[in-house]
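Narrative of accomplishments. A recurring question from our advisory board has been how the design workflow behaves on a single, concrete structure rather than in aggregate. To address it, we present the structure tokens for one chain from the evaluation set, followed by the sequence designed for it. No filtering or post-editing was applied between the two.
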């Protein structure tokens, strides 16, 4: 009998396929692994043309927020900041205490700042699995 608690996991990453490289792919693989273990995952990431803003099934929800990102393969500080501001606003209005058990925030900036806001506001524990980009994704 499996007595492991199913977790509600929030992942913050301004990159998620088809955007980005290493961190986006790592986030997708982490989400898939958590789901295989019976957890539910919500990813908050960046919108991009011709990609649905919200996709959802029983265990995975992907929320794509509008930001200034122009290219699939790279971003710059201005674009990252626009996603961070959009994510902070979304989380402030849409996430309440008890919605999630833990948050994984990719990159100290921008994801870590959003996670810190959630920690202060709804006491959501968070982990920053890496503080910078992941060039070895392939």
């Amino acid at each position: 009998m499996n007595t492991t608690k199913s977790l509600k996991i929030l992942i913050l990453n301004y990159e998620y396929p088809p955007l980005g490289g290493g961190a986006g792919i790592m986030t997708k693989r982490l989400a898939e692994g958590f789901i295989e273990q019976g957890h539910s995952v919500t990813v908050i990431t960046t919108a991009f043309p011709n990609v649905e803003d919200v996709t959802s099934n029983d265990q995975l929800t992907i929320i794509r927020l509008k930001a200034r990102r122009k290219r699939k393969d790279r971003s710059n500080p201005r674009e990252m900041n626009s996603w961070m501001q959009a994510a902070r606003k979304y989380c402030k209005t849409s996430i309440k205490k008890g919605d999630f058990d833990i948050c994984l925030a990719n990159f100290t900036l921008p994801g870590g700042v959003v996670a810190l806001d959630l920690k202060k506001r709804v006491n959501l524990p968070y982990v920053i699995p890496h503080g910078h980009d992941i060039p070895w994704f392939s």
